[in-house]
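Sequence, please.
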C-alpha cells in the first residue's frame, strides 16, 4: 500500500518535471524568436538611417532601341544600315516611336554598415522633360565602407507622347543621341524615392532624390 503510494507520487513528480521541461523549451523558443525578430528590426532600422547617407549617380545607359532599332551608337540617320533605316521609316509612317533601354544607377554607401531598400519610385527626365515614371519593386543591398551596388532599371518611353507636337525627324534625332561618350546618359535625370520595409511597415524617403551622372557629393 505504502509502496504503491510512493510509486504514484514519483510518477506525478516525473510528469510534472516533464511538463515544466516542455514549458521551458517553449518559453526558450519564444524568447529566441523575439530576440532574433528584434535584431532583424534593429538591422532594418539601421539600414533606413544608412540609406539617407548613401549617394547615387547614373552610371550608363544600355540597349537603346528606338522602334525596334538598336540606336546605342547611332548619331544620325546615315549611320544606319538599309534594313534599320527602313524600320525607322515604317515608324515614321505609323507615328509610333517606342524607346526602350536599361538605365544603370550606381549606389555608394559610405557607412560602416549595410544600407538597403525594398522599392524605388522613379521619374525619368531627358533634357528636363518628363518622359515616364515607374516603380522598381525589388530588394537592393548596398555594401558598407564605400561599397557599390549597381541597380539596372528597364525603362520604356512612348516618344510620340512624351514629345507631342514635335516632328518625326525631331523625335528620331532625339532618340539617336541619348548615349554620350562611354554610354554616359548625360542628358538624363532620374528623380527617385527609395522605400525600405521595417517589420512589415514601408518607410519612404522624404521627397525625391535628383540623380545625374555625377555623385552629389553629400
Amino acid at each position: 500500500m505504502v509502496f504503491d503510494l510512493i510509486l504514484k507520487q514519483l510518477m506525478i513528480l516525473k510528469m510534472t518535471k516533464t511538463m515544466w521541461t516542455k514549458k521551458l523549451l517553449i518559453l526558450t523558443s519564444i524568447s529566441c524568436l523575439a530576440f532574433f525578430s528584434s535584431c532583424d528590426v534593429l538591422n532594418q532600422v539601421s539600414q533606413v538611417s544608412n540609406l539617407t547617407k548613401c549617394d547615387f549617380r547614373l552610371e550608363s545607359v544600355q540597349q537603346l532601341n528606338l522602334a525596334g532599332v538598336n540606336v546605342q551608337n547611332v548619331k544620325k540617320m546615315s549611320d544606319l544600315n538599309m534594313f534599320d533605316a527602313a524600320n525607322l521609316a515604317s515608324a515614321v509612317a505609323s507615328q509610333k516611336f517606342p524607346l526602350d533601354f536599361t538605365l544603370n544607377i550606381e549606389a555608394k554607401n559610405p557607412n560602416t554598415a549595410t544600407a538597403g531598400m525594398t522599392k524605388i519610385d522613379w521619374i525619368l527626365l531627358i533634357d528636363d522633360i518628363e518622359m515616364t515614371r515607374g516603380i522598381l519593386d525589388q530588394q537592393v543591398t548596398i555594401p558598407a565602407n564605400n561599397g557599390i551596388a549597381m541597380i539596372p532599371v528597364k525603362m520604356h518611353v512612348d516618344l510620340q507622347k512624351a514629345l507631342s507636337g514635335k516632328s518625326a525627324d525631331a523625335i528620331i534625332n532625339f532618340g539617336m543621341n541619348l548615349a554620350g561618350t562611354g554610354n554616359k546618359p548625360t542628358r538624363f535625370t532620374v528623380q527617385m524615392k527609395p522605400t525600405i520595409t521595417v517589420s512589415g511597415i514601408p518607410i519612404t524617403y522624404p521627397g525625391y532624390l535628383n540623380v545625374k551622372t555625377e555623385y552629389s557629393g553629400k
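The radius of gyration is 29 Å.
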